[in-house]
Automatic annotation (TrEMBL), chain B:
It is found in: Cell membrane; Membrane. PROSITE patterns: ABC_TM2 (PS51012). The chain crosses the membrane at residues 64-84, 96-118, 148-168, 174-199, 206-226, 275-295. It holds the Pfam family ABC2_membrane. Keywords: Antibiotic resistance, Cell membrane, Membrane, Transmembrane, Transmembrane helix, Transport. Residues 64-300 form the ABC transmembrane type-2 domain. Residues 1-23 have a biased composition (Low complexity). It is a multi-pass membrane protein. Belongs to the ABC-2 integral membrane protein family. This is Transport permease protein. InterPro entries: ABC2_TM (IPR013525), ABC2_TM_bact-type (IPR047817), ABC_2_transport (IPR000412), Nod_factor_ABC_transporter (IPR051784).
Length: 292, 303
């Protein structure tokens, strides 16, 4: 399950409440059935947390880090040692086990962080923006590790501002904005709610204005025009009634007397859903995950 | 900030795998992962010991952390013993001084506690520990106990400096042992103040300056270096009741060091029962600052 939202949407706040780092001002939150405000100890016992704001101890080696967490989770010395070794090999860190974590690459640190979250086999793993600030290679690395967890049947609550990440890793996606849930569903369901998009390309700059008018008339939505790509003068608008809108668009273009190079209906991407749901263009710019 | 209500809703949904929890009940409670059920006191002790060992590993990995514990005492011994020492009574003064230096050294090691904890807070280690099902006091207790190591190192260096300056204990090993115990107890108490200062500070930089600043008046307005009676007006009263004064006084008694001839004698209950007063102060400090720190740790939210 992914929690998707732009910066400042409340993802981390929610995570902090769930992991009992923050107390909710109002309302109740339950983790695996345990109220985080009244039974934080028990809620904590059922959660493993990794990501943006949790960290590994750079001064300790990989295996010491995991051993410490295992001991703190109440495992005995020998069990703790075994669990640490198992996780190190599972996350391909055995070779680096004896090195201080501060010498690890970003991807290795995140893997160690993930491994630490798994100790004690908590039924829920919370990953707060697990790939924020990672280079593409480390991101793929982390995705792979998370993917394996999901395949193994671990329940994961993932927060992210990367649409691709949610699309790829999550069965269910909840989109939040300014502390409110604005949409919920599987990736396909969300894409379906946004409908399709009418996309057309014109050959000349002076064709853009009439083409935009035609698209607006046909869809009832405000079209967006992409002038940045020089060769592709592209007009896009959201449509809800697919084929009929396409027919209206062709008629409208005919009336305007514009030639089009290409016209068609595209299935929405998660980006479209996200930007449509979280509103204004300024905020779309402020959220780096929107672009690849 | 209209966040919480909806957030909580979403939380409930998330926590129960998509089924919205009924407002009153809270959904099915998943069983807690099996772990050995232990007596809470033993549990806290074990968790604190694990965390203390972690801090000691830090010292081993980066012995540079001990540099200030090693050199600060030498610095103070030189500065006070030889810059002021000769005007205050020469070698007789330096013998008197050592107990004061030890008391001050103990106090100054708390800045190490402050910085260590502040760094953990800033780097997010504390958040990691806070998401674990461990006692809230364990992290703090681990810190205050492991930092006794620094204190021992510093006190050993101070003592060595003292011996080089001509100071000698004139009593038996039992008295010396009592002195060491008293120093450790007081160091532990002071460390809790250091913890509280770290929890007040918004970041490591502020913590490291705050952690030092309060130590200067706290240690110098005492009879660590001079007789408290020679201080003007209210400062004399503060100094007389300052536990640094009583620790230094108790150590002087335990080691059999007498003040230099012209030093005015000290009066008052703490001066007459310095060891008892130091123990009482330590216990009080531990009680107050453990409570304050735990409260602050519980309620502190990281930005």
């Amino acid at each position: 399950m992914a929690l998707l939202g732009p910066n400042g949407a409340g993802k981390t706040t929610l995570v902090k409440i769930l992991t009992t780092l923050l107390r909710p001002d109002v309302g109740d939150a339950f983790v695996n059935g345990w109220n985080v405000a009244t039974e934080p100890e028990k809620a904590r016992a059922t959660i493993g947390m990794a990501g943006q704001y949790s960290t590994v101890d750079g001064m300790l080696t990989g295996s010491e880090n995991l051993y410490l967490i295992a001991k703190l989770r109440g495992l005995g010395r020998r069990t703790a040692r075994r669990v640490a070794d198992d996780l190190l090999s599972r996350f391909r860190l055995t070779a680096a086990a004896g090195r201080p974590a501060r010498t690890y690459s970003g991807g290795m640190r995140r893997r160690l962080d993930l491994a630490a979250a798994l100790i004690g086999a908590p039924p829920l793993i919370v990953l707060d923006e697990p790939t924020t600030g990672l280079d593409p290679e480390s991101r793929l690395d982390t995705w792979e590790a998370v993917g394996e967890l999901v395949d193994d049947g671990t329940t994961i609550l993932l927060t992210t501002q990367y649409l691709e990440e949610a699309d790829r890793l999550a069965d269910r996606i909840t989109v939040i904005d300014q502390g409110r849930v604005v949409a919920e569903g599987t990736s396909d369901e969300l894409k379906a709610t946004a409908g399709n998009r009418l996309v057309l390309y014109v050959a000349e700059d002076h064709d853009l204005a009439p083409a935009t008018r035609a698209a607006a008339r046909a869809t009832g939505a405000t079209p967006t025009v992409d002038r940045r790509a020089r060769r592709a003068r592209r007009v896009e608008a959201a449509v809800t009634d697919g084929r009929a809108a396409l027919g209206r668009a062709l008629a409208a273009l005919d009336e305007e007397g514009v030639d089009v190079l290409e016209i068609g209906l595209n299935r929405s991407t998660l980006d479209d859903v996200f930007l449509g749901l979280t509103g204004s263009a300024t905020r779309a710019e402020a959220q780096p995950g929107g672009t690849r | 900030m209209s966040t919480p209500v909806r957030t909580a809703d979403a939380a409930a949904a998330a926590g129960t795998g998509g089924n919205r929890a009924p407002a009153a009940g809270g959904g099915t409670r998943l069983p807690l992962p099996a772990g050995p059920r232990r007596n809470p006191v033993i549990r806290v002790a074990a968790e604190s010991a694990d965390l203390a060992l972690r801090n000691l590993l830090h010292l081993r990995r980066s012995p540079g952390l001990l540099v200030s514990s090693l050199f600060e005492p030498v610095l103070f011994a030189l500065l006070i013993g030889y810059v002021f020492g000769n005007s205050l009574g020469g070698s007789a003064y330096r013998s008197y001084l050592v107990a004061g230096l030890i008391a001050q050294t103990v106090a100054f090691t708390t800045s190490f506690t402050t910085v260590g904890l502040a760094r953990d807070l800033e780097q997010g280690m504390v958040d990691r520990f806070r998401t674990l099902p461990i006692s809230r006091v364990a992290l703090l207790l681990g810190r205050t106990t492991s930092d006794l190591t620094n204190c021992v190192v510093s006190v050993a260096v101070t003592t060595a400096c003292g011996l080089l300056m001509g100071w000698r204990p004139h009593t038996g090993p039992l008295h010396a042992a009592a002195g060491i115990l008293l120093v450790l107890l007081f160091a532990f108490a002071m460390a809790w103040i250091g913890v509280f200062v770290a929890l007040l500070a918004p970041n490591t930089q502020v913590a490291s300056s705050l952690g030092l600043i309060w130590l200067f008046p706290a240690t110098f307005i005492s009879s660590g270096y001079v007789s408290s009676t020679s201080l003007p007006g209210p400062l004399a009263t503060v100094a007389a009741w300052n536990p640094i004064t009583s620790l230094a006084g108790a150590l002087r008694k335990l080691f059999g060091n007498t003040p230099p001839p012209r030093f005015p004698a000290q009066h008052g209950w703490p001066a007459q029962h310095p060891a008892l007063y130091t123990v009482a102060c330590s216990v009080l400090l531990i009680a107050v600052f453990t409570a304050l720190s735990t409260w602050r740790y519980r309620t502190r939210t990281n930005r």
